[in-house]
Structure to design on (123 residues):
């Protein structure tokens, strides 16, 4: 498999992780809204809330390994991941946010992808 295709595979895992984190935040917001307003809401959503809690637990379990890996990265590497995959910024925007040049951007990117490749079990 070419390096570029392999990098895209690793990036898709990271994108999925950040999408799952965003979904967890949305589900938690929904539960909070329900709990804050359950006495005003006429319909009983307790079964749906239980289902949402189960989904949150499953998403957290699925992503626990990658979360630990990301937490072990340097501040600069974590910032890169957040800007690139969570906030979906462009190369130029990331360079401006991190006060780095294009060469440093690609060095950080490749360093992270190589590290993730070494610790993730992707076929």
């Amino acid at each position: 498999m070419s390096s570029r295709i392999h990098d895209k595979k690793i990036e898709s895992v990271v994108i999925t992780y950040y999408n799952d984190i965003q979904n967890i935040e949305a589900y938690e917001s929904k539960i909070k809204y329900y709990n804050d307003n359950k006495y005003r809401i006429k319909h009983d959503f307790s079964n749906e809330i239980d289902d949402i809690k189960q989904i949150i637990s499953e998403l957290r379990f699925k992503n626990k390994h990658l979360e630990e890996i990301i937490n072990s990265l340097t501040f600069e590497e974590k910032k890169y991941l957040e800007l690139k995959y969570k906030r979906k910024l462009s190369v130029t925007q990331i360079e401006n946010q991190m006060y780095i040049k294009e060469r440093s951007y690609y060095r950080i990117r490749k360093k992270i992808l190589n590290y993730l490749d070494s610790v993730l079990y992707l076929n």
The chain has five helices and no strands. Residues 3-119 form one domain.
